[in-house]
Amino acid sequence: MEKTTDFRYNTGATKVPWAAVGENYNASDLMEIIRFLMQGEGEEYEQACSAVYEQVKKLDAVSTPPGKLTTGEQVEAAEQACNEYLGTDSSTFVTNATSGFEIAYKYAGLKEGDEVIVPAITFVATMAYPLAVGAKLVFADVDPRTINMDPADVERKITPKTKMIVPVHIGGYPVDLDPIMALAKKHNILVLEDAAHAFGAMYKGRHVGTIGDFAAFSFHEVKNITSFGEGGIATTNIPGFGSEMKRARFLGLDFSAPIKNWLYNITPIPGKEKPYVALNYSPTESQGLGLKLQVARNEEIIAKRRAAAEYLNSRFAGNDAIIPQDLGGEDIKPTFHLYLLQIDPAKAGGDVQTLKRKLDEKGVTNIPHFGPLYRFKVVSDMGYDPNEIAKSCPVCEEVFYHRFTHLPLYGLSDGQLEYMADAVLEAVAEMQQGR
Ligand SMILES: Cc1ncc(COP(=O)(O)O)c(C=O)c1O
């Protein structure tokens, strides 16, 4: 068996090795994994499975299992693929985007009394760490066209206590980062890009997720590409922190350091103000392999999603009650993770709540995750007053309650896309007729 790169195991040609992997997967386990990844039923399916099982047993007899299942060469290869794709050298594969955010928040030394500016509309993961450590969340209002953080409102809400700004590229549409980066520089604030939806999006010729001080992409199963259901890539532009991120992912261990007297060392991670102790956010080799394979298809996937968005826009053109997805241009290239459908309530004869209900009735999935964060119970239970915050986020209130919903763009047949476009047009027509 090959020697692993991890100094804790010695799987080389020793007389008594400590194998990195205690119990390997055997042929029947592997068959269950194949059945899980390629599900089916019926006689033809069972026959195909039996044939595969016979071959897997033969393969088992002539193969050796991987020497390592947790973070190793496959994870490194996935990071390398992301580095090449994104044009960075700091990609660090972690368990999910939320843990990537945690590395950034810990570097900032976020604690009670500090303020973090997040957009009013995002997913709870963006604000979970600040909320958990008792930092104060400050909600920036959104741009009505993109529902992304509005830089002008960020500027109004910066105080001497602001430690971080967290732009979120919602639906994969890039936030206008130039003004945010300029504000951050002026006030010595760290920028963490929540690029969960935005792997492959471009802002003024640069990849989103490589512009802020930190960023994290998500490869949770619902995203454009995945690493077996969970996963994230964290990046940084903090000088010298790129190599520290690997240690920040796993308890502060440095696998490259020589061990003296059989005692290895675990050192703290340097933070902006003071060092901190790292936790464990290690991904597995299977996730590494899964991500590497899908990164190679990312551009193709974005192109298909874009084509679906263009189709919907073409169907909605000419109906001035419907405000279609902004497709971007030379400077802005979205990932089309979601289709942002908006209506003009005055012209549509009602607001988006009616539209959502009608789409539900017609069997069209609306994606409900992205709403005003300050309306979540966890926020009021932690002592915030949602109604007070709402007063400082009027655009968020207007777009959420009256104007927007998200539609899916991928994995749909031409017939399903057409049905969805018809359903939106019919629903709006019904609203205009007062039905
Ligand atoms: C906007 C946004 N940020 C962060 C996350 C968290 O990503 P992960 O599940 O990889 O932690 C999500 C996940 O859905 C998200 O939608």
Features:
435 residues; Aspartate Aminotransferase, domain 2; 3 domains; 7-stranded mixed β-sheet; binds pyridoxal-5'-phosphate
What does this structure look like?
- With 435 residues, this protein is of the alpha/beta class.
- The chain folds into three domains: 27-62, no CATH class; 73-295, Type I PLP-dependent aspartate aminotransferase-like (Major domain) (Aspartate Aminotransferase, domain 2, 3-Layer(aba) Sandwich); 298-432, Aspartate Aminotransferase, domain 1.
- It is built from 16 helices and 15 strands.
- It has helices at 27-37, 43-62, 73-86, 97-108, 128-133, 151-157, 177-187, 241-249, 285-295, 298-316, 345-348, 352-361, 377-381, 386-391, 394-403, 414-432, and strands at residues 92-94, 115-119, 121-122, 136-140, 162-165, 190-194, 202-203, 206-207, 214-218, 232-236, 322-323, 332-333, 339-343, 371-372, 404-407.
- The model has no long low-confidence stretch (mean pLDDT 95).
- Bound molecules: pyridoxal-5'-phosphate (PLP).
- Pyridoxal-5'-phosphate is lined by residues 96-98, 122-123, 125-126, 168, 194, 196-197, 218, 220, 232.
Structural class: alpha/beta
User: Could you say which overall geometry the principal axes of the C-alpha atoms support?
Assistant: globular
By oligomeric state, this entry counts as single chain
According to CATH, what is the class of the largest domain?
A: Alpha Beta
Might you state the CATH topology name of the largest domain? Aspartate Aminotransferase, domain 2
Query: Residue ranges: pLDDT <50 for 5 or more in a row?
Result: none
Listed once per kind, the bound small molecules are: pyridoxal-5'-phosphate
Assigned CATH architecture of the largest domain: 3-Layer(aba) Sandwich
- Describe the strand arrangement of the main beta sheet, using strand numbers: 1-10-9-6-5-2-4
Helix content: 40-55%
